[in-house]
Design brief:
Radius of gyration: 18 Å
Order of helices and strands: HHHHHH
Structural class: mainly alpha
Number of strands: 0
Shape: globular
């Protein structure tokens, strides 16, 4: 999880070297996160499951770039909000384990309140 902090530091430096923090308020970074996520979805839109698998293999570099954009905005937003993303992930995984115990959730896509 130390990698998250190191990557976040690089993202912050990249932004600050360009004096972009003035534009990267919480709302706009959150909006950018959603927009970049939509660009990931665009790769799969209107494709059958078989086409999705083939497209993912053939466009791995493009998908990699889009996923990186999502991660960059996610890490930056967490940093801007003073949220320790490593800790938040650990805490959320504990909550998820309680909501989705293996004996009830294994092999099912059912939402926790319907298990």
């Amino acid at each position: 999880m130390e990698q998250i902090k190191a990557i976040t530091k690089k993202i912050r430096k990249f932004r600050d070297d360009r004096d972009w923090k003035q534009f990267h308020n919480h709302k706009d970074v959150a909006l950018s996160l959603v927009l970049e996520s939509a660009e990931v979805l665009e790769h799969f839109q209107w494709k059958s499951p078989q086409e999705v698998d083939l497209h993912a293999k053939e466009h791995k570099d493009g998908l990699s770039d889009e996923l990186a954009d999502v991660a960059i905005y996610l890490f930056e937003l967490a940093d801007n909000l003073d949220i320790d993303l490593s800790r938040a992930i650990e805490q959320k995984m504990i909550k998820n384990a309680k909501k989705y115990p293996i004996e009830k959730a294994k092999g099912k896509h059912t939402k926790y309140d319907k298990l």
